[in-house]
Each structure stands twice: as C-alpha cells, then as structure tokens.
Amino acid sequence: MQPFTLPEFYVPYPARLSPHLEQAREHSREWARAMEMIDAPQHGIAIWTEQDLDAHDYALLCAYTHPDATADRLNLITDWYVWVFYFDDHFLELYKRTHDLAGARAYLDRLPAFMPVAGEITEEPSNPVERGLADLWTRTVPARSADWRARFAVSTRNLLDESLWELENINAARLANPIEYVEMRRKVGGAPWSANLVEHAADAEIPARVAATRPLQVLRDTFADAVHLRNDLFSYEREVTEEGELSNGVLVVERFLDIDTQAAADTVNDLLTSRLHQFEHTATTELPAVLDEHAIDPAGRLAALAYVKGLQDWQSGGHEWHLRSSRYMNREATPDALPTGVAGSGSLVPVAGLPGIPGIPSLGTSAIRVIPSLLATAPQRIRSFANVPFRVVGPTSLPEFYLPYTTGQSPHLDSARQESVRWARSMGLLDRVPGIWDEHKLRAADFALCAAGIHPNATANELDLTTGWLTWGTYADDYYPVIFGTSRNLAAAKLCNERLRLFMPVAGPLTEPPVNALERSLADLWERTTRGMEPAAQAAFRRAIEVMIDSWLWELDNQVYNRIPDPIDYLEMRRATFGSDLTMGLSRLARGDSVPAEVFRTRPLRALQNAAADFACLLNDVFSYQKEIQFEGEIHNAVLVVENFLDCDRGRAVEVVNALMTARVRQFEHVVDSELPDLFDRLGLDGEARTAIDSYARELQNWMAGVLRWHQGTHRYEEAELRYHPSADRRPFGSPTGLGTSAADVRRLASR
C-alpha cells in the first residue's frame, strides 16, 4: 500500500509527445550500452540492467518534455537524462549506501575535467559517468555560446557537487529545514540544469543581457522547485522507505510541521501549485517589462518566449512521465493511455498565463485535466489577491524565541543617539515635507540601540556611521510607499532608484547635486563610508545597496496587484529588502584580504549568512505584524504569507514562523560546529583565514543578538507609537504609512 494518496496536481498545460519517441528509445539504449551503463558492474555492483533502463523509459520523459525537438536533438537530450539518472543511481550505490564521504569527494573532484567551458578534454574517462559526460559535453557545447556554456557548466557542477550535501546529511542523520531544503534541492535536484537543456532543445538561448535578471531567475527557480516538489511526491516511497533518503520535501514538511504523511503530501502539492502560479505571474508581468527595459530585439524576445514555453512543456511532460515510469510511486494513479499523436496536430489551447504566445496542441485526453486542475486550485490563487488592508488585528502575542547568543553594548550609545538626531535634521530627514518622520519618530525608533548591539566594540565614529546607515535605510523604506505606493507611480520609483545610483560613484567624485533629503543623506553616508576604499570594494558595496533599493520596487509592484507573495519568493526577496547583500559585502570588506573571495562563495558561508538573515527578517515580521497589517495595509509580512498559504489563523502562523526562525538558528549552529571546520580542512586555509572566518561567525552572532535586543527595546512597534504620525493633520489614522516594517530596518551595516 502506498504511504499516501497522490494529490490532485495543478497541470495547466496539456502534455504533448514527440513523434521521434521510438528512435530516441533505440538510440539511448545503444548509447547507454556503449558507455557501459547497463549490464556492466561497477566495483562489483550492477547499477542498471537493460530491463531497468527500458522500465525507467527516459526517452518517454524527453519525448514528453521536449515535444518540438528535432530527432537528433531529442537523441542528445535523452542521452543527457540517461546520464544524469545513471549518475544519481551510481552515486547512491557506491557512496550513499556505503557512507563513503572521502571516496565521493575524490569521485566528484574528477568530473569538472570532463566539462571544460573552453578548450579540449584532456583527462581519460575511467568509469561510465566520466565517459558519458565527456561524450555528451563534446556533442553539445560546440553549438552553444560562451555564455550558455558557462551557465550550463555551473548548473552541472552544482548538480554533481551538492550530492555531497545529501551524503553528509545521511551520515549525520540530519534532516534539512524547509528553507535550506528548497535552496539545496535546486542545486542537487538538477532542474536548473534541465532549464539549460530547454534552451538547447529549442535552439533558443536567453539573451545574455537578461539572463541574470530577477524575472529570468524566478522563472528558472519556480520551474526547478515545481519539478523537484513533484518528483518528491512521486518518489517518496522509493527514497524514504526503500533507500533511507532524507532529501525529500514530503519528509521535510512532515517532520517540520509535525503532521501525518498525507497532510504533508497535500502541503507540498500546495507549494508546488504556488510555485507554478508564481511562474505564470512572473511570465506575464515581469518578463515583458525586463525585455523592454533592456531593449531586447525581436529575435531575443522570441527566444525568451520559446524558453518560457519550453519550461511549460517540461512541467506537463514531466508530470505525464511520472505517472508512467516504473521508477516512481504511481500504482494508484490512472494515467491516460499513452498518446501516439504527433506534436503540431490537434486543436489549439491557449497557454495558461501567457497571452500572446501561440496555443499548443492537445493530445489524447491530457488536456481534459486542465479545466479540473484550474478549478481545484482557484481558491488558492484567489486567496492570494484577496487581502483586506487595514483590518484591525491588535497586538501579536510574542512567542519565546530561540537564540543562544548574547552581545555587548557600545559605551558610545548615548552619544550616538544624540548624533543621529543632529545628523538626520541636518540632512532634512525630519522636514515637515514630505513628512515621513519627525524627531519624535526617530527617537522612538532608536536605531543607535541596534547599532550598539550589533557593533558592541565600535568606536564612536564607527557607531555613528552604522547608526546613520540604519537611519537612512529605514527612512528610505518608509519613504517609497508614502511617495510612490499611494499614487502607484512605479515609474517615479524607478527614476528615484536611478537617481540614487548617482550618489554612489565608484572611483570618482559626485557629478550631480542632491535635490532632496533622501539623496543628500545617501551622498553623505557614501562619501564617509567609501573614503579610502579600493574601486573594486566600492563597486561591491554599491551593488549591495542596489540590490536593496531595487527589491523595494518588487514590493511596490505586489502592492499594486494586492498580491500576497508566494512563500518561497517572499523569503528570498525578504533578504534583499532587509539589506542582506549589503551586510555580506561589508563583512567581506572588513575581512580584507585574509579570506579569499571564493571562500565567501562556498555553500557553508552562504548558508551561514542566509540563516542569520532569515532569523532577523522573520523576527522583524513577528514584531511588526500589527504595524504592517493594521496600520499600513501591508502584504509583505511572513506571518501573513503563512496565514495565506496554510489558510490558518495568526496564532498558528506565528508558531510556524517561529519554528522557521528556530530551524535557521540551529542550522547556523550546525554550520559553525560541523561545516566550517570541514571547510577549513578541505580548502587548506591558513591560520589567519580561519581566525577571520571564526571572527565573522561571531559577528553574525552579535548581529542576531543585537537585532533581537533592538526589537525588544524599540518603541517602533508599540500601538501607542503606531497611532502617532508626524503628519497626522494630513493623513488620518489607518491610512498607508509604509510598505514594510522598514524592510531595511536593522541590517544595513552589521559588519562595519
């Protein structure tokens, strides 16, 4: 008996089948035999028999997911999927089952030699995985641009290397928390790699100018998450009950929420649906705008749309294959009879969520599932747009937060408090027009208290500068919704961002005079902070600030649609609105040259930073719930996002958010205790670098403790303070006063 009944999936696009299926089956069988993947024992273990390969039917997967590919391209794509699934099973048998971490590392360290971004392969393959990779790389990359090759190499390395993360968790009997799981599943699960192959199959590369923009990243990530979550549902029985696997979304949700397996499966399916809704929203609202912004020519636009359509085909085709492959739990499913039609025939059905893109043919009865699928998931979609702003919610009962760290307090706190008021007045931040703040509001917020906790050892000047950045970031975040949000003037907000970039010059003086308090205060802070910095450091610092201010445009856009964000999109963007990239950039500057830049790009360091950021972001959302929901008509709050997603009350949502905070702190502890020492040894870091990273971890601990202390001491979130406004004569109680709880509230210069 299956461990749960498969839920009703959201499948908005009819699946189609390539006419080249049988040819691909025959070709892939011969190719796998030539690579010694079938009936060829590895270290005494037969990974696959020919019967295994036939039963898995990867040609059917590729014929479904790439229905418009030419016969030759379908053969090549199918070979890639045979290779990747063989790698997965090969790694399982030789390293996961044996818990051989050292052997796995040596095995993975050889694979990059068989996928050079430039030049020829010089190593000799020694096993089927290396042999297959060398063959496929040679057959694929000559047809692609250097940009595509670089992206494909990264996603392939992630797919291979992060298998160690799964193995390390198995060895430690450690189950990931939900946020960590989604992030890591994207890398180890392979869907971003599949997205690269979508470009190759369609012979339509994403224009390089937009490949790294938010819309394209979100399309790739939502595609990846949906693919992986669907796979987790179908593979739960094999992975969890047969293989002892811990990397499965259903298991993660089951344990995290302490619910039964069926309820966990239904929740994972809801998240899958939410990710597909996000995909559609991004494709229809964000992608056209970014193509216009970067002046992409007609050929580039067609390539981008072909890519989107290819990702849609993959979702539908992948679902059909999961219903049929012997690899998965599908005995209780009742898939349609295998369609035998030809892609390109049949009636046209509009592609859901993508007006203006040609319809796609319906084959067999797969299209019949579209309407029931849309109806079944309509309540979830509607709920995301049905928030009632300014409803009275009252104060939030605060849970007991888990944080095993404490911090000191700077002796310069009182002087920093006075200096912050003097500086804000001199910059015009307290002017009656536009009336964002007055002195009362600034003193009630007490940003110096935050600075004194996150930087207990700062000099007086350093503490003043940190307090200044906290003040500017919070003022700016309150400024945007008041000036641009109430008028829904997104064009003016974008222009404001472009103006702000003028006051962060790299390797040169200001060339434009500031015209308002926001610009004037940024120019002052920039000059004081970057004085003496190298140009490269200035550029990194500037980029961190740009990530933050650009993320405020995302908030404004959601506010226009009254759209409560998708949970994953919210958490990832919350780091940006909170200024996490700025903090990371400053932390690296503080480390100087004692830590190589590539070390800060390693998974343990990124995990450390993200875990700390998530704790602070979620903490802020719990404290600010009444401020944002009742007094600002806000939708960017994790408690509200959880309420909407789980369709639960505030009390349950606060419990879930606090559990996520706890999980992130425990992950922080795990990284410090286990992953950093291993990283030191693996990279052979010297004593200076090790000391610098240990110091950085302690600074992040101070930062989390300082953020918590500030939230407990500030008056910013008290109801009496919320009812006060410096421009009460102009704006009545209950009207919008800001998009977020100053999405930049306390993070700005955590490491100065």
Automatic annotation (TrEMBL):
It holds the Pfam family Terpene_syn_C_2. It is an enzyme of class 4 (lyase). The keyword Lyase applies. GO terms for molecular function: metal ion binding; terpene synthase activity. Gene3D superfamilies: Farnesyl Diphosphate Synthase. Belongs to the terpene synthase family. It comes from the Bacteria. Its cofactor is Mg(2+). Keywords: Lyase, Magnesium, Metal-binding. It comes from Frankia torreyi. Its EC number is 4.2.3.-. SUPFAM superfamilies: Terpenoid synthases. InterPro entries: Isoprenoid_synthase_dom_sf, Terpene_cyclase-like_2. This is Terpene synthase.
